[in-house]
Please model this.
Amino acid sequence: MQFQRQIEVRTNGRGLVDLTREVAACVRDSRVTSGLAVLFCRHTSASLVITENADPSARGDLLDWLERVAPDGDPRNVHDAEGPDDSPAHQRSALLRTSETIPIAGGALALGTWQGIFLAEHRHAAHSRSVLVHISGE
Amino acid sequence: MQFQRQIEVRTNGRGLVDLTREVAACVRDSRVTSGLAVLFCRHTSASLVITENADPSARGDLLDWLERVAPDGDPRNVHDAEGPDDSPAHQRSALLRTSETIPIAGGALALGTWQGIFLAEHRHAAHSRSVLVHISGE
Amino acid sequence: MQFQRQIEVRTNGRGLVDLTREVAACVRDSRVTSGLAVLFCRHTSASLVITENADPSARGDLLDWLERVAPDGDPRNVHDAEGPDDSPAHQRSALLRTSETIPIAGGALALGTWQGIFLAEHRHAAHSRSVLVHISGE
Model:
């Protein structure tokens, strides 16, 4: 059994958007009880990460850390056609995930208690982002 | 054909735990000869990495590097409810992998010669960690 | 339906090699119209990344950034049996991807417009690298 749905996300610029509910709805609608949910982010300046879903300060620290690891406006970046956040957005996408695969058990995503699924927008401007959800199983 | 088993790992605090044998045992027990093994780490302060399995100094350097990339006690981290290794554990989890997918060929994991599958514990305290193994194929 | 093919890549030392066409050819040859393409890099000093396929300067900046994040010859690395790029190659592999999963829709990889699939060679010497492509679906 296979099921595909594209989730469209409107971001408000740099930050994390929680997709957990929308992915869970895909699993429900697929009627798959045991299988896999594959998430695929169709961009190179936005990406996926599964991280702490409870305390917003954990996510704030994750974003601040990305600023330190791949800072905007680093003069060593050459590719700035779209601005000082252009290359850093690709670098952060390379550091986080383009695809993520989550097992389905008992008809639900087998996430741990503290795991949320997030789209990470790496550009400062608001964007429309597409995440393809592919579910397979029984 | 589908098979799921949760591997429970007791860590001794920060470090890498080799899961290769336990994952290989799952493949054997699944009787899948051609397919996929998906590993999913159900935590946000521990993660997965496939790296050099031969010389322990390679793994030591990987851990030391993570200390430099996401240092404990960085005063710019706000989220320290569980200690100075709280946010760095989430940051390191975001840098390594939550899920990893390994093809199965000829009834075995299609790992390269030098590849081992490791759970990376990012907290200093010992923890119980769960890794879900989902196998599908023929 | 399942299909496996190993892609052999001859690298010219450190850099990115575009595999998009060869992976697309696997999808075509598999005759799968809806499913998943899993890529698995069988090495610990080379890895995969899906990134910007248009402007070479974006890829140049990505490589330069990896030099800053995991520099060659860092005196804190102990494992240098194969040279000053030995441990940095493992560190960069841990930062990028060992496996990547791409949905197939309408008989083609569901990549975004600007996404290319690249093998990242992290060693300075030329190497032969193997990427296993596993396709499943209908």
